Amino acid sequence: MAARAGSASARKWLASLFGEAETVAAAATKTPKSVAKERLQIILAHQRGSQVLAGVDLHALQQELLACVQRHIQVANGANINIAVKSEGQLDIFEMQVPVDGSTLAARSRSAAP
After folding, report:
1. Is 89 left (phi over 0), alpha (psi -120 to 50) or beta?
2. Which of 19, 41, 49, 74 is the Cys-Cys partner for 85 at CB 3.0 to 4.6 Å?
3. Is residue 15 within 8 Å of 28, Cβ to Cβ?
4. Residue at 62 is within a domain
5. What is the pLDDT of residue 91?
6. Quick check: helix, strand or coil at residue 96?
7. Is residue 77 scored above 50 in pLDDT?
8. Three-state SS for 79?
9. Measured over all CA atoms, what is the biggest interatomic distance in the chain, rounded to whole angstroms?
10. CA angle 12, 15, 21 (to 5 degrees)
């Protein structure tokens, strides 16, 4: 019993260390009100994202950013690239997800090792 209490407090400490204490506590006590609020925030972030990117040629933006990333990182062939704008607090966050070629990264790290 003491081991379980210790592991629970260790999880809480790790969660607080990484800023996840609120999400851990919220996940344990989800009410219909909190679920509705979370869904509304997702909808608002999506709408805000479409307003921020209004009038932007997304295809051209994606190609230019991808070319920049490829100068420094090997991108996986046939990669599905996602662009999104999210709201976190008072900030709108532009996010681009680009899958990298893991085999190339492993080869680089081996060749860079002394």
Report:
1. left
2. 49
3. no
4. yes
5. 79
6. strand
7. yes
8. coil
9. 59
10. 80
Q: 20 lies in a domain?
A: no
Residue 92 lies in a domain: yes
DSSP per position, 3-26 = HHHHHHHHHHHHHHHTT-HHHHHH
Per-residue pLDDT at 38 exceeds 80: no
The token pair at 84 is 């999104």
Domain of 94, in residue numbers: 31-112
Residues whose CB is less than 8 angstroms from the CB of residue 53 and which lie 6 or more positions away in sequence, other chains included? 83, 85
**CA gap 36, 56 in Å, rounded:** 31
How many domains in the chain? 1
With respect to residue 5, please indicate whether it lies within any of the assigned structural domains: no
pLDDT reported for residue 86:
76
Rounded-to-integer distance, Cα 87 and Cα 45, Å: 5
